[in-house]
Amino acid sequence: MVKRFLVFLIAAFMALSLFACSSGNTEQTASTPKVEEAAPSPAGSNTAPATTEQAKPAEPAPSQDASKAPDASAQAPSPANGSSASGAPAAGDTSKPAPAGEASKPASAEPSGSKTPAPEPSKSNPQPAAPPKQEPPAQQPPAQQPAPAKPDPAPAAKPEISPQGKKLLFVGRDQDPLPAEDQAIMDRLKKMGFSVTHSIDREFTADATKGYDMIYISQTMNSKFLKGGVMKDVAIPTLYVKNHGMFYLGLSSVEENTTVKKSKTIEIVDASHKIAAGLSGTVDVYKEIGDNFGVSYGVPGKEAKVVATVPGDKTKAALYYYDKGAKADNGYVTKARVSFYYWSNGMHENSTDAGWKLWDNIVLWTLQNG
To answer: What is the 3-state composition of the chain as percent helix, strand, coil, each rounded to the nearest 5?
Structure first.
């Protein structure tokens, strides 16, 4: 009877203890959200709250009723990380069985023995992130200006035509033997390299010029064979030492009386020209003066190129030429370069070195057919 009373007393005591533990766990569970809202304990604080049951000494239970008590450790679910909940008995406390209602108690939010620190909130109010600093827009490089167009290169200078082997038709008076001046001129042309063919004036025609590179009209030619413009359609460079030939083509405005007698000089008006050969000013072209000879001239049109004139009268051209395609004052267009040289009859023996130099140069200039 006494034993039963003791067992009943112990059972009542244990029920009161379990009720007290259950009430403490319920309050602890209910207060868990508030703990999360409060400032967490410092990172190094790992102390978990001790339960009331852990502070109480274990009391031995009667052997016949100990087996009837449910095993709380077998029924309580284990936390995910394998550590016991704070409401469960300590690992070493095997003498105290857990009541049947113990299994339904929620596990403590913080497992026993866990040392994982809670995140520490910032001590100051978080400031909004500063907007990224906007870089000033990159300056676009100035549009590259197109390189200025290069000027067209000057046309390459046409190589000078050499007289070597060039066929020249020499037209002079029909006389046997040939006039001495014609023979002297033909010999000089041959020395320059020309292949010279002589033609008498009375047999001269435009068809006779075909196949030649240059034509030379001597001062000995009878001008009547040039009348009618026999040379107007000939596209071969021609040198006239006869003013009448220039007049019949409209390249000079005077026909007769075009010799300044008792004169032995000319005036260089274009000293830079190749024909001038570096000569300038008044140049002696005859060794002496005479009553029957002098300086011949023409009165050319606007498109003529004048190199030398009669001294004191720039309208009377002693050395001049028309380029290929130039237009005479009467509208005639030259088919090739046409030049004029100032000699009168018999001047080959009276000519100075300067006079011969000018003659050589105008022959070569005419051949170029510019």
So the answer is: 25, 15, 60
pTM, full prediction: 0.60
DSSP letter, residue 42 = P
CATH architecture of 167-367: 3-Layer(aba) Sandwich (3.40)
94/91 Cα distance (integer angstroms): 8
3-state secondary structure of 35: helix
Render pLDDT for 245-298 as a digit per residue (tens, 0 to 9): 999 999 999 999 999 999 999 999 999 999 998 999 999 999 999 888 899 999
- What are the boundaries of each domain within the chain? 167-367
How many residues are listed for the chain in this entry?
Answer: 370
- Per residue in 140-178, pLDDT (tens digit) is 656 666 666 666 665 666 789 999 999 999 999 999 899
DSSP three-state, residue 187: helix
| Nearest-5° Cα angle at 164, 159 to 165 | 120
Pick from 367, 260, 256: which is nearest to 309 by CA?
260
199 in Cβ contact with 169 (< 8 Å): yes
